[in-house]
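Here is one chain, start to finish.
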Amino acid sequence: MKKIVISTGGGDAPGLNAVIYAVVMAAEAKGWEVYGSRGGYKGLTDLDELVRLLPESVAEITSQGGTILGSTNKGNPFAMSVQNLAGETEICDISDRIMANFNRLGFMCHIAVGGDGSLDIARRFYAEKGMPVIGVPKTIDNDLCATQLTFGFDTAVSTATEALDKLHSTAKSHDRVMVVEVMGREAGWIALNSGISGGADVILIPEIPFDLDNVCEKIADNDLHGKHYAIVVVAEGVKAKDSAVICRDSVSEAGRQEVMLGGVGEWVAGQIRERSGKDVRSLVLGHLQRGGSPTTFDRLLALRFGAAAVRLAEAGRFGHMVALVNGEMQDVTLEEATKERKVVTLDDDKVYTAREIGICLGDK
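Its structure:
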């Protein structure tokens, strides 16, 4: 009996449960057993967190948001925060312990579902420890370069677009400027896609440093043309020209400094209010973008990824990640998948579209 283990790591995204469902059902059809590792790699360190996944245990989860296995973005086995006997926190490498459990339990493959961080951990397990790994790309930011799209992105954009649609009516009623902060640490795909679709006047993304004078000029131009309100979409990782990214600093469990983004929307709103004298309000969509049922597109894409991952496992294509390339399921190496971020470029068609329909991107 062949056995595989699946884990979901990093931030949650709509469609994770659909991947789990597809893996279980595709493996069951081949007579394989599937186990789920709760909380990332916890199931391979604490066997109480390892659960057998049967068709009946994953029934009807495809439409559910989140992940039935739980997730974590602080569980790097190569640098894990643990407490020693003195009660002090220190960084330890527990990857050998995980490999020992993986081999002792007789797993033939690990299907790792995650974004760039989780997939880089999977790459290290394959390259440095010899673990047979198949990767599945997941991130609402859509910033993995080796795949055309990642599941979770379409749902996040739909959530942000719906919010923008609703804000138009309240902004117009009070002649207000509404500044909406969306996720996007280094890549502005959510802001760009939702901003264009949601009729934003200004879209600020991490790839294009912005000038507040240009932003306020666009808002003033609205007034000149009889539109006395504006919608400004801001990705959380944006920065003004000659300025640093606005963030909050917090101390991690291991005593290391960890950068926490957030607050740039409120800062932009304050600057617009001061410079223009307009009534300006800000809001942060935050984790609303991660929640809820996946869209039809994300659901189908996640199911395709899960089934394709089992096919790769059967073919022994370890060290690879399933990817959407030209609309079809293909595979790329984990090294290729994690070598760089996919970011918005100035020659992207969506950037041209935004400019041509009158949206200000802050640079001119």
